[in-house]
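Suppose you are handed a protein chain with no further information: no name, no annotation, nothing but its sequence. What can you learn? This example shows the usual starting point.
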Amino acid sequence: MAYDDLRQWITALRRAGELREIHTEVDPILEIAEITDRVSKGKYDKSADKSVRATQAGGPALLFQNLKGHPGAQVLINQFGSQRRMNLALEVDSLDEVADRIRHFMDVKSPQGFLDKVKMLPMLAEMGKFFPKTVATGPCKEVIKHDNFSLLDFPILQCWPKDAGRFITLPCVITRDPKTGKRNVGMYRMQIFDERTTGMHWQRQKIGAEHYREALRRAAVEHDVGAAVLARTTEMPAAAKRAAVDIMARSSGGSVLADGSRPGGKMEVAVVIGTDPAITFSAIVPAPPDVEEYLIAGFLRQKPVELVKCETVDLGVPATSEIVLEGHVHLDELRTEGPFGDHTGFYSLEDQYPVFHVACITHRKDPIYATTIVGKPPMEDGWMGKAVERIFLPLMKLTIPEIVDINLPVEGIFHNLMLVSIKKSYPGQGHTQSPQPHRSRARHSIHPRPHRFARPRLAPPQLRLKDGCRRHSQMGQRRLHPSLAG
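A reasonable first move is to predict its three-dimensional structure. Written in structure tokens, the prediction is:
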């Protein structure tokens, strides 16, 4: 049975002995992150509590209930920080169960006759459960604030000493493609600038950034050509195409403010904090471009995501969310964001990013603030990355059938290094294949020399990266060869 919301998920964690509740006062500025970092790396007193002793690698999930400067607030962190909790989050005994379900749907063949069509009806009925549905209202509307609100009312963390400030680190950021109307749910960190504005750190390869660029192109076309001209024609005039190309060239794809005249305008954005685990996890998966994350969440939870309309923007958000931020990104505004202690174990440098202006906040009564920290692995995001690895292996095999198995080592931060086992069918095959579905996630893939390493039943080696150089010379015919994947 799917978790209806974050609170049901917390109850399940408590029941499974996977949750530690902290009643001692702690500070959202640096202290929560320090505690969580130690816990996620196993640096805690395992004899202190039976629930902690029962928790395997990754430490327990933590629910802080006494927060300095935020009386009555609660912070949930490390909720996905172990293999067992990832299984619990997706309600399976093994992540391979989810992969098997994906494989089952991929194996469907076109019906050849009436009987085949009848046999497909149960599957079609099951697929119908995955699509999101809109409801009139939900718990996220228990408190609605159009005025007199502040982002600083929430216990948003500063994670590391040299961070530029507080960052929202586990948001589901909802945008809409200005061209197709398709929604996207992504996860991009958000630096708190003041009570009503944040940074929006969508890197240029992210879908949210592409929606921003498309909005910028359209604004430039309307500025130079006029909306009335565009409305009278089905094909974009040459002048409009030039305006779209020009603004991309002058703004370096929207990453800098263009010199000279630049179009104004706004792009609607909604940010959700604190959902059931399937929705939060869906925001990080490498979804195919035409598949909406709400649909993926429905597939994972075997139940449709219920959405409610926002108060001030034309977007739908999960009805049971703890916190919803509604607002706009201005197309003619960038601001310095960062530095930020990142998942590589280093600080990512400051750069220019769009600014999110909050116009309305809705939330549940006594909302629970869900967050995470990233840094030198292993940490919570590593377990989420491993889940992506196992669940989406069938899609990779669909694109490259010779793939047998993959391993995304935690030391490679899950999108910089991939070990791939393939089934050899011609010489040099290991040098030519790249796992296309993960191009955006795996910048550098390591492929085996297949005559040994790529035997059909041989999985990628689970070697520790620090041992890799030493073992490389000992592997003989199982040597690894680097291959650029993107």
